[in-house]
């Protein structure tokens, strides 16, 4: 009948058939975008419990000529399939380092993907960009998710240890969103733990999430790990998070990711 016919059409969706070609296209365009400087960073503020601005998180955006602003969820996973993720990561680090003074906050975080950490030269290249831009490494934090394998003596662990030796802080991002989180915590010394926003979203309704966040904050207090709550959208969430012992907060309630207003060259000067 009609239904089966429709289903068959969906099963042979041309978009699925060209999935690989679509990926190749994005990859090619992204490679060009990095060279042409069509990427941009948006910065989202992070606040301490007393309301002081403690830093920002850099979040990459792609200003596509046709598609407009493309969010990272649409291209990071494609970049991760090749060396492109390292090129993108180095672009992000350099841009962030160049912007750090204009941001007027002590700290700046950047996201680093597992694919970047698998490269043996990651830490050396990171250090080179930090040196080249003259940034104090102690102001930088790298955020990694728990999908990063942290086998003792493995390349990822060696890269992160090298960064920590430079003074860069290491944050575990989206904590609680994956598996075996507590085990992961014990494997490596993190400086910062970011509670996944799914826990924050449920806070008002879920006594279990409340207790879990309080327990994570207690672990943080005992082991000297800074606890950042992600995705704070309401005043009620903020109050509950403070009561649970969180020390740092990030979310739309407090500030959205926004581009840095760069000093633009006046048009008269450009035209001259
Ligand atoms: P993330 O590192 O966990 O970043 C937080 C995400 O939550 C950002 O999405 C941010 O815009 C969003 N967000 C912040 N506050 C709120 C809130 O109150 N409510 C809600 N619903 N969302 C909020 P974005 O910018 O789309 O980034 C998504 C993910 O893409 C990031 O998650 C990170 O994993 C990855 N990403 C972003 N920039 C980079 C980058 O430069 N390099 C790499 N490797 N990954 C990046
Ligand atoms: Mg992050
Ligand atoms: Mg996160
Ligand atoms: Mg995330």
Automatic annotation (TrEMBL):
Gene Ontology MF, one: cyclic-guanylate-specific phosphodiesterase activity
Domain of life: Bacteria
Name of the featured protein: EAL domain-containing protein
